[in-house]
């Protein structure tokens, strides 16, 4: 919104001050942008050379003295699948309740406040409560299932919020039309509301996957630190295993193998890039619908 | 017809259950935190626990004073906020008021990407680049320090500050800015004297959100802060509230383990206060806009 001619009429001190602040704004934005670029470039440049086929397709072997992160890749996938399968019905259900069913405004406010609160609780606390509740009280021990259940609580707010947003974009006339034609409420939700808000639900899933992939503190005490292959999905659920982020921590801090850690970081970075891209494309589709 | 009615009632109940699930989770977490955190505080004594300056959990005569952790968390968060807020706020100003739309659309995804980078990756870069750098520049034997943690945290809180502040700045009614421009203020003066004050509650919410992130962060800080229970000093190895828990949890037992849960309770209280403040700030913002 600059107008050069106006600026030049200003007294010199005011003009200098104006210019300094403007420069400062641009400098800060440049710092942020450069920081992002430098971080990503550094991780990829230092990590990608270490990402070999052997690394991503095998498990660690002391006999051959080789390192492989296949178990961690599988553990990450398993936890994502397990957590999403559990959280999706719950989160979408909660959003449907908030937008379609709830009649008491006070209750809605309480639920929204607690959902926000959940989003603000640090992951280390989720880890502790998950350890006490799932691992000890429910006797799941340190296992992928316990980790997935802990993450379910953690990503619930993400799913609720994004689903709620897209439910709000479904025009009121759809609802009135369906109900007017004699559909019951559940039939209307099943056939009209949910299908037209599928974009938002998928966006929520993608964001949730992003959080799961990056999570480590909540998984340390619930899913454990195992680096061995755990077998198929159902066998793995009962075993203790590290996801990629946790494996990165183990390699960097407990084994001192920074090159492996950077290779894992590069893999994580690629996943994050893909996730961000996918979320953006979907977000755009959602906006176009509006 | 009866079956239909039954299904309706059933689904109503199912959705209600999903809706109050978040409330249940928050209650569960609160109950667990309080129930597991209180015994040790009662045994050690609240004063001794909160204001004791020595943490020697594995000594023959163990002492459990968490003042070093509390102060480290407070200083670390304050430092990160002091560094992160100006940069984040001005970047938000750049994105919402200064940059041409095309450039802003390029920079914004980069900021989102910053939010998506897993905390262990921040920790890894911190420990392999930043920590040696600090050691070299300041001539320290080891670079793991409060300073390193502050720097890492200040980058990690940038995305929350930027995205919330940007939303708030965009919500400022254009008439305010037009009026200021028409009265002869330059665009930059308008930003600092009109736009930012008008968006202050939204910006405050972003800052509080960032503070919450910083105080709850565990893994990245654990990797760069050195984890010695010193009273905080900029160049010393320090332990945060979060890292005190995660560092000892795996091998703790008895009173030591209970004391760790008490630390978690203190952390939880911090977060709850921050959440309430955040809620008030956001509500204030909504009222201000009307």
Structure in a nutshell:
Chain A has 290 residues and is an all-alpha fold. Chain A has helices at 4-8, 12-47, 53-57, 70-101, 105-120, 123-137, 144-168, 172-180, 185-196, 198-214, 217-220, 233-238, 244-254, 258-289, and strands spanning 59-61, 66-69. Chain B has a two-stranded antiparallel ribbon.
Can you offer a commentary on this structure?
The complex is a heterodimer of chains A (290) and B (290). With 290 residues, chain A is mainly α. Helix content of chain A is 78%, strand content 2%. In chain A, helix 4 (70-101) packs parallel to helix 7 (144-168), helix 8 runs antiparallel to helix 9 (185-196) and helix 13 (244-254) packs antiparallel against helix 14. Chain B is built from twelve helices and two strands. Chain B has helices at residues 2-44, 46-51, 67-98, 101-116, 119-138, 146-170, 174-182, 187-198, 200-216, 219-224, 241-248, 254-289; strands at 55-56, 63-64. Chain B has a two-stranded antiparallel ribbon with strand order 1-2. The mean pLDDT of chain B is 91. Classes of the chains: A mainly alpha (290), B mainly alpha (290). Chains A and B meet through helix 2, helix 4, helix 5, helix 6 and helix 7 of A and helix 1, helix 3, helix 4, helix 5 and helix 6 of B. Chain A: One of its GO terms (molecular function) is phosphate transmembrane transporter activity.
Please name the defining characteristics of this protein.
heterodimer; A: mainly alpha; MetI-like fold; 2 domains; two-stranded antiparallel sheet; globular; B: 290 residues; mainly alpha
| CA radius of gyration of chain A | 24 Å
The biggest sheet of chain A, with number of strands, parallel, antiparallel or mixed sense and barrel status, is: 2 strands, antiparallel
Strand order of the largest sheet of chain B: 1-2
Query: Looking at CATH, which topology of chain B would you report?
Result: MetI-like fold
Helix and strand pattern of chain A: HHHEEHHHHHHHHHHH
Q: Identify the overall geometry of chain B.
A: globular
Cα distance, first to last residue of chain A?
Answer: 29 Å
Point out poorly predicted stretches of chain A.
none
End-to-end separation of chain B = 48 Å
Number of helices of chain B: 12
Number of strands of chain A: 2
Assembly type of the shown chains? heterodimer
The share of residues in helices of chain B is: over 70%
Main CATH class of chain B: Mainly Alpha
> Structural class given helices, strands, pairing of chain A?
mainly alpha
> How many helix segments of chain A?
14
